[in-house]
Amino acid sequence: MTSEPSSAPVADGARPRRRGIYLLPNLFTTAVLFSGFYAIVAATDGNFDRAGIAIFIAMVCDGLDGRIARWTQTQSDFGKEYDSLSDMVAFGVAPAVVAYQWGVTRIAEYGFLWGRFGWLATFFYAACAAFRLARFNSRAATSDKRYFEGLPSPSGAALLAGFVWMLADLQREGLRALILAFTVALLAGFLMVSRFSYLSGKDFNTGQRIPFAALVLLPVGFMLVGSSPPEMLFGLFGLYALSGPALWAWRRLRRGRRDAAAVNRGGPR
Fold first, then answer.
1. Each residue's pLDDT tens digit, 158-194
2. Residue 133 CB contacts under 8 Å (≥ 6 apart), including other chains
3. Is residue 252 part of a domain?
């Protein structure tokens, strides 16, 4: 592993202790960065299916690097910063470039303003991803680990890149499809910077028992995703993106019913 000299004092005759970066979790973070870079290159070459696959691979690696660091007790400030920078490339810049390369030239054929709409939508997404990551880093120490505030950037990337991958796979290139793609970019960006709560899954204990039915459903889920990856992945992450507003509406409804019940109990006798 790469290391640098420590500033801590050492005894005479002893070799100075060296601080370094942990290899295993940072390998997965590097895989996230590489996948984002590859997605950009693939989109530039017009291979949008490969670009979509690369972003989903980046999501898997991003989910593993933090868990591996916690399991092996190898968390570090360097790893946190490196992870954030890699996430910005893979889940901020790469999906925006994929959408831009797929649709901006095509939508510009329908008029100058349509072209500007596509350009601004993709930049809006990238800016929201940067804002989302910066907010997450600044509040990581005090936030509720059970929930994310705003749609996580990997899920936003899956939503946008998955939709573009699906349209490219179905060969949909009309104005309606182009407008929908850039609208998804705007919605994904908005959800990332929103205050909607999303389940994080970080409180899930891998050592606890699960129902047998859940174990049976796991291979079924893989079969469904394998049957049509673009459509199924976009559908899954689309449901997750909608879960935030749905959870907010349910909480508001429950709070309203509770307040109404309190008013009725405390009404005039």
1. 999 999 999 988 888 789 999 999 999 999 999 999 9
2. 84, 87, 88, 92, 153
3. no
